[in-house]
Model the fold of this input.
Amino acid sequence: MLIVLDMDDTLYLEQDYVRSGFQSVDAWLVADCDTNGFFERAWHYFLSGRRNDIFNQVLRDFNLEDDKRVLKMVEVYRTHEPDIQLLPDARSFLMNHASTELAIISDGHSVSQWAKVRSLQLVERVGTIIITNDWGREYWKPHPRAFETVQQGYSPGNCVYIADNPLKDFIAPATLGWMPSVRVRRTGSLHGDIPTPESCIEVRTLDEAATLFYKGLTH
Ligand SMILES: [Mg+2]
Done:
């Protein structure tokens, strides 16, 4: 059986990456224009549900808005070496499976995603890691290419995907005839409010997923 995992909000909490990125941007802003307080404001906006314009908004608050500065902040955020950790259940799940029966499929900016892979020490633990963006934006999920690539040598009915985002994660594995996908619905995850599709099995942690596999995955 091949167990394929998503990374963000499946193996670690994405909000921890956001926090780590904001801290790097904060340090950069102190060095660039001697401005303190970026982190507290940015984190406040993030927790209040704001998403795509947090850098602009904080700079506006400080009367420092400038397109070039925003671009540089995005670069600092995306290229920083993140301070993130595997969730305890993810750590034990990976330890309890051979790297050869594990794969990862993850979207996102390549530099950022590979920095996460390094920080979480996943190369040592997972046989195949595909960052879809390495092929181009058009291969992000739900494009099936990554799923077709990892399933080589397995029958589709022996492959399962474990992930968190109902908007895009479970379409390709269902189309390819994989086992019912496992949706991890974690407290504190970014897509936790979206209901689990009927075709998926919902778990709260990977400990629950491991128990399912022992019992035999049925739906
Ligand atoms: Mg995810």
